[in-house]
């Protein structure tokens, strides 16, 4: 009887529960089931969510406004023995390169007086700008001639010699020897790190941005970057120091300084953009783009030029460095606005004479150094080789000839040599022989104080001193391979967008 009562009570409780369950709406049952399931999943995956939250920070956001810090290895004192060149081979008696001559290894010797067939191992050692090409030759971006795969060929074809490369070797070495301990350079080179100069220093001691940029360009022109090359440490420290001197506002970065003003900014922009174009180092991309952006922001909105201060009415000399900065950014596939280039063209139109064969400073004129600047800018902004004004301008430069002697104007020589080299032909051959041989003979020889450097009494020398002259002299001797020819199909693809 007791068992019957128990069974009856159990059945009653079960019936009550069943009744309650069936009385609950189906949607509420579904909600409860899904809620329980969600809580189980949350319990399982919560540790991973917390872990991801710890890893992901604001700094990881791709749209962060701040400029990325340019992180490089700490610049340590360099072992001087490791930086010394081997004794250079004797210079050839004739100003031509023998077919059987060989270059020494670029990473170790920068090819002083010999040449070598580097094609067998070029893909393993050439800079990134050459790796982007499908084959060794005249392809890639405009800096591809600096790589081992093309430098030998371009040096032979365009008039370089073993003696000219030896001059580059020792010129770059002089620059390296006068780097400051903080990685920068000064036009007052008496405070150099290894071999402080004793004479012919520049007055612009407070222009570290301009001095450092001018010092870096010859390294880059020889294919040496912060990623590879004999002076990797020096280039690395110089680039890091330059980036640290950039004043960032919004998406622009300024290298403007009191003494160098917009000259400093243009030079620094060229150096950063060339280093980025050659290495594609992501740490350089934003600083280089910010420098380009500042050039675009500083342009005179009315006349289209640049001068000393922000949006000041332009002059041809300052315009030349800014156009070259924009060109360097463009060849590195950075963003350059069409209206900026159109403005530069507008400015050039406003200072030209002889239908564009000659150029003045702020107004129309005919001054050889500015003629060279204007013509080179015209080449890079779209003038073709058969343009009558370009042909006349080149003829005028050829008649004027290089500036030589103790009062040589290396500013004129630097720009005019590029114009003549890009134009080519018999006029270039005559120009090159005189320009090349003069620089080889006027370099301070080995064994003397200031060996490997140059100093002339031409324009701007009192401000830039021996560093200024040495930098422009080396760059002039690197003209054979520093940029690909403008008037060839590979280079035509590098034209500014107009």
From TrEMBL:
* SUPFAM superfamilies reported in the protein's UniProt record: Terpenoid cyclases/Protein prenyltransferases
Q: Which residues cross the membrane?
A: 18-46
The answer on whether this UniProt entry bears the keyword Transmembrane helix reads yes
Under which name does UniProt file this protein? Squalene cyclase C-terminal domain-containing protein
Q: Which UniProt keywords apply?
A: Membrane, Transmembrane, Transmembrane helix
Report which superkingdom the organism of origin falls in.
Bacteria
User: What's the source species for this entry?
Assistant: Blastopirellula marina
List, alphabetically, the InterPro entries matched: Terpenoid_cyclase/PrenylTrfase
